[in-house]
Amino acid sequence: MTGTDIDLVRLPALEPGAADPPAAAAESTGRGRFSRLRGWLSAPGALVSAVFLLLVLCWAAVPGLLAPFDPVSDLDSAAAMAGPSSQHWFGTDPLGRDVYSRVVHGSRLSMLAAGLAVTISVTAGAVLGVLAGYVGRWLDSLLMRTVDVLVAIPGLLLSMVVVSMLGFGVVNVAVAVGVAGIPGFARIMRAETLRILSRPYLDAARTSGLGHVAIMVRHVLPNASGALAVLAALELGGAILAVSALSFLGFGAVPPTPEWGALVNDGRGYIASAWWLTALPGAVIAATVIAINRLSREIGVVQR
Amino acid sequence: MTALLQVEDLHVTYRGSTGAVPAVRGVDLRLERGRTLALVGESGSGKTSIGRAVLGLHPRGVRQRGSITLDGTELLGLPAPAWRKIRGRRLALIPQDPLAGLNPVHPIGRQVAEVLVRHRLAKGAEAREQAVQALAEAGLEDAERRYGAFPHELSGGQRQRVLIAIAIVARPELIIADEPTSALDVTVQKQILDRLALLTAELGTSMLLITHDLALAADRADEVAVLADGALVELLSGSDLLHSARTPAAQHLAAAAPTLDSPALIPPPANPAPVETVPLVAAHDVQVVFPGRGVREDVRALDGVSLAVRPRESVGIVGESGSGKSTLARVLLGLQAPTAGRAEVLGVDQGRRLGRAERRAARRAVQPVFQDPYSSFDPRRTIGASIAEPLGALTRIGRRGQARRVAELMDQVRLPATAAGRRPRELSGGQLQRAAIARALAVSPQLVVADEAVSALDVSVQAQVLQLLARLHQEQDLALVFISHDLAVVRQVSTRVLVMRAGRVVEQGPTAEVLTSPTTEYTRALIEAVPGRTPTGERR
Asked: Which end of chain B is more exposed for a tag (fewer CB within 10 A), N or C?
């Protein structure tokens, strides 16, 4: 190591004030990002999760290419109620449809519904949270007490009430799950907003002459996005579960459209004689949720 | 006689994400019994790394090489159980942060007595008695009654005394004081350092004083080791530090350290603006009261302060923490509305409902530079975007014009053009503070309010930023309000000074006059507490 090296790298902030950690050069940030990626991949759990989630996303994107059979019209009545085999990986249902193909095709609807639900939660929660934190006073009290009331009702129950109001269907289920997720995001966003408002760069923005809207859009939202992203990833897993649960209860997809929760429900009557009808789609749901939760933890690490 | 502490060819290397980072590179030190050795240097010079190595506080991943002996015993590579017998008993640390250094859930007295109990020097009532005595020795008034107090019930200075009590209670041979007073006000700092000097003299304890403050080291240390880039640059006696350093690096540091003797950067104005000109900003009998919640009482941050800053003036505001100087800055910047009284910008009362144009005019006239360069930039935005922000909000300059203006401003504050595309964490504190000044200058304000703008910076960087402000003041007729707890700094850049205490202005006048012949007891105490005041001798 030569004398100049110390200038290139940042020392841990040991000195009081740590006023002058030498600036990391642009290329070292690039390298930093790369090593972060490598660190990511060295965690086997995260790697497996990422690969599995990629597979599920591919299912949802191009189910026709990945599923060996048509999920609705390929009725192989000779092979109905057959267990898992090399031809039918997840076995077949009472009508002789390939369960694996139905899981593959069902992923699209389940993922889209969960995605829509989280989008609704994030958007509405972020807007309410920013307003509550930024405006404060009576609006803060009003919004946050409303949120408190919503939190007091179990999420699934709330979703069921909303679906009953809107009517059955996958979109309505997604909206219902999304609404049930709003309180969490509103609370996080409000806390983040309050944190950011106390930062000196907000004072700098005010003396720069920025208006309220500009401050919220340019400074508060981007700086809160990290926390929102972590929660959103976590919520996505929960949303898949909630959408499936509501479909299982019969609020969602209309037969014969394949959907994960509906698939589990379809097999419910045969649980003693044909375990694969419930267990294998259930396992896929569980694996997806676990993978998403695992990856959301990685997002949290990267954000820090 | 062997030295109490002997450090030979010490190397400390951190493992960074991009490879090994040497923090200390071959340092030799000797500290005799009953003496005080100061380690001085800027951030990254390795002074704290040495302190931590002596205390055996480096985590396992840090590579250490060389030798550290305490009274002949090798400390490097000592196993953890052996360390536990030495730390607190023979070696003690006085940490920097008086709040973080104490456990918030235990009474302070128990935290002092714990040292004795751990080292089996005393227990029960005896430990308590000795702890009370140590607290009294450390200068905590009413030690007996405060034994059961919790850290949050004490002031910063009192907490620091508790930390000193913890350090001295077991009568260690060596005390390592890592920036023991940098979080404290100057008057408190002086009391604490006086007390430490007295104790080390009485008990014959040696002290390793780690500080960034050269004047303080010159005042308090027998010997000073000047460090730069992890290497020992010069070893000299405390009295020689400020005026007789031999090596260029040490001279450079000494020259940058402001004392009450260093030359002013801004001469008194040759043609002061006549009194009848409209002040750029004015406060008339301003009061700011923060309402208390529940049982807490209201806080009167400003209690009838009046101030007028005229064009081309440079006004300094000094005071200790809680004196209301930052609140005054926020009032002048329009970030805090007065509870009573009036704040005017260019003669316009800011308390009225203002039109958009009036509001903009006020913002354009007065711009800020804040204390912490790291947190005064949005971490998600590039420096260029942050500097351009006031241009976008307060002027009609188009995108291209903004880019040109940003480049011009960055050139003015001597920032490399490449910095515009960087994010705040990629720049150093000094560079960021220049960027903050560039942002303040973007809309060509007539007044810049700098609130502790250099206190988070190393002395050499501090000197550069001060010179930059002085240059802008003179070249661009920029008026300055410079707020600082550091009299030596205020003296360099202000021609008029206000001394604040408890929300009031207790004294004001031309800087030279106030500092040489203060009329109030408080100002006199402030001046006397500034370290490095007497250039030679007269220590302790």
From this structure: N
**Residue A268: per-residue pLDDT:** 85
Residue B231 phi, psi dihedral angles, 5° rounding:
-120, 155
Q: How open is the CA angle A154-A155-A157, to the nearest 5 degrees?
A: 70
Structural domain contains residue A58: yes
Closest to B43 (Cβ–Cβ): which among A9, A17, A219?
A: A17
Residue B453 Cα, gap to closest chain A Cα (Å)? 12
Q: A54 pLDDT band (50/70/90 cuts)?
A: very high
CATH of the domain at A135: 1.10.3720.10
The DSSP output letter for B421 is G
A60-69: which pairs have CB atoms within 8 A and are 24 or more residues apart? A60/A107, A60/A108, A60/A111, A60/A112, A61/A108, A63/A104, A63/A105, A63/A107, A63/A108, A66/A104, A67/A98, A67/A100, A67/A101, A67/A104, A67/A105, A68/A98, A68/A100, A68/A101, A69/A97, A69/A98, A69/A101
Q: Is the pLDDT of residue A2 over 60?
A: no
User: Given this model, what pLDDT does residue B1 score?
Assistant: 56
Q: Which domain holds residue A250?
A: 41-74+89-303
Which among B532, B506, B535 has a CA at the least distance from the CA of B521? B506
Mean pLDDT for chain A overall = 82
Q: Which residues of B touch A197 (CB under 8 A)?
A: none
Query: Which ipTM score applies to this complex?
Result: 0.77
Q: Which two tokens stand for residue A247?
A: 């479909």
Q: State residue B272's pLDDT score.
A: 65
Torsions phi, psi for A112 (to 5 deg): -65, -45
pTM, two decimal places: 0.78
SS3 A28: helix
What is the four-CA torsion angle of B340, B345, B347, B353, rounded to 10 degrees?
A: -60
A36 is a domain residue: no
- Report the residue of chain A nearest B367, measured CA to CA: A207
pLDDT surpasses 70 at A19: no
Q: What single-letter DSSP state applies at residue B390?
A: H
Locate A75 and state its tokens: 């009725």
Q: Number of residue pairs across A and B with CB atoms under 8 Å? A: 153
Determine, yes or no, domain membership for A83: no
Alpha-carbon gap, residue B314 to B524, rounded angstroms: 22
What's residue A8's pLDDT?
35
Q: Tell me which architecture the domain covering B281-381+444-529 has in CATH.
A: 3-Layer(aba) Sandwich (3.40)
Mean pLDDT of A109-115: 91
Is the pLDDT at A20 greater than 50, yes or no? Answer: no
E strands of B78-189, at which residues?
Answer: 91-94, 174-178
Distance CA B517, CA A66 (A): 88
Q: Which portions of chain B are predicted below pLDDT 70?
A: 1, 17, 269-273, 294-295, 533-540
Are residues A223 and B378, on separate chains, in Cβ contact within 8 Å? Answer: yes
Q: Which of B16, B45, B229 is opposite residue A9, by nearest beta carbon?
A: B16
Q: Residue B447 forms beta bridges with which residues?
A: B366, B479
Supply the DSSP symbol for B87: B
Portions of chain B given CATH number 3.40.50.300: 281-381+444-529
- 32-51 in A: which are within 8 Å (CB) of B? 32, 35
Whether residue B43 and residue A207 make contact (CB cut-off 8 A), yes or no, is: no
Contact B229 A6 (CB under 8 A): yes
Q: Tell me how many domains chain A contains.
A: 1
Tokens of residue B182, six digits = 């940098």
Contact A17 B182 (CB under 8 A): yes
Chain center to CA of A20: 39
Contact assignment for B386 to A207 by CB distance below 8 Å: no
Q: What residues are paired with B15 via a beta bridge?
A: B20
Closest-CA residue of A relative to B181 is: A16
